[in-house]
Amino acid sequence: MEKDQTRREFLTAAGVAVAVGTVGYAEAAEAKPNAAPNAARLADGPVKILAVCCSPRPGKSTATALKAALDGAKEAGPQVQVELVELAGLAIDGGPAVGLPLPPGQKDDFPAVAAKLTDPAVRGIIIGTPVYFSSMSYLCKAFMDRWMAFRRNFALADKVAGVLACGGNRNGGQEVTIRSVQDSLFCHDMIVVGAARPTSRFGAVIWAKDQTRDSTKNAQNLGRRVAKVALAMAEK
Q1: How far is C-alpha 32 from the chain's CA centre?
Q2: Closest by CA position to 152, among listed 17, 6, 14
Q3: What is the mean predicted confidence (pLDDT) over 206-219?
Q4: What band does 215 get if pLDDT is binned at 50, 70 and 90?
Q5: I need a surface site. Which of 17, 21, 107, 191 has the fewest CB within 10 A?
Q6: Which among 200, 204, 209, 137 is positioned nearest to 170, based on CA atoms?
Q7: Residue 224 has pLDDT above 70, yes or no
């Protein structure tokens, strides 16, 4: 218990909660402790779907698949807006998630990305990662660990989430990787969905060397599903 308290104190002292825009959620939680932070919807406005590419290599297969997912999301309706964020080249250290301070002078790009995730207009988030030894990339793991900041007030609650995994082989551990990322998303009280019909899988299974372009269809189905559920939530 003492360790958990120390972690919370560190996050507050470091200004992480303020940087990711969760202060407003704390006030809402005090007013209505059982209300989801994102229950207050925009009356009229865009439904934004944000895709985050966790590949350390920019513009490669994972990013290409996420672009296809966002194309699918746009098919859900004219109200849908999309954005792709690539973590490649950004400084995201997992240490602060467990209370370890960054070395003096070390850059931290997580707060800027976190601000995008907590934007009220963002109703859906798609996480894309390459597969390394049947698991997510090191960059994805560090990124997801930093989501500890969101747990303070469940800032991502009720946002719709989907996962895409890209492997070097057709059966390269994509589904295992997808489920691993989904486990993290469930911890944030998010609405986790899989790929849509007709394939209807855990998520978007991507094969980097796909010659039939089934991977593109999988990605589009996932993006369309995330956007449709996000639109339905916004209408409520």
Answers
A1: 26
A2: 17
A3: 83
A4: confident
A5: 107
A6: 209
A7: yes
Confirm whether pTM is higher than 0.85.
no
Q: What is the pLDDT of residue 168?
A: 87
DSSP, collapsed to helix, strand or coil, labels residue 62 as helix
Of 140, 5, 38, the residue nearest 85 (C-alpha)? 140
| C-alpha distance from residue 76 to each of 47, 81, 119, 191, 214 (Å) | 10, 10, 20, 17, 20
Count of other CB atoms within 10 angstroms of residue 64:
18
Q: In this model, does residue 173 exceed pLDDT 50?
A: yes
How far is it, in rounded angstroms, from Cα 206 to Cα 173? 10
| Domains by residue range for the chain, with CATH | 2-33+46-235 (3.40.50.360)
Per-residue confidence at 63, pLDDT binned at 50, 70, 90? very high
User: Cα(146)–Cα(139) distance, rounded to whole angstroms?
Assistant: 11
Looking at beta carbons, which pairs linking 183-186 to residues 24 or more positions away fall under 8 Å?
A: 184/144, 184/147, 185/127, 185/161
- Interatomic CA distance for residues 72 and 74, integer angstroms: 5
Residue 72's alpha-carbon distances to 177, 208, 218, 227, in angstroms, are 22, 19, 10, 8
CB-based burial, 218-236: b 16+ in 10 Å, e otherwise: bbbbbbbbbbbbbbebbee
82 torsion bin: left (phi>0), alpha (psi -120 to 50), beta (else): beta
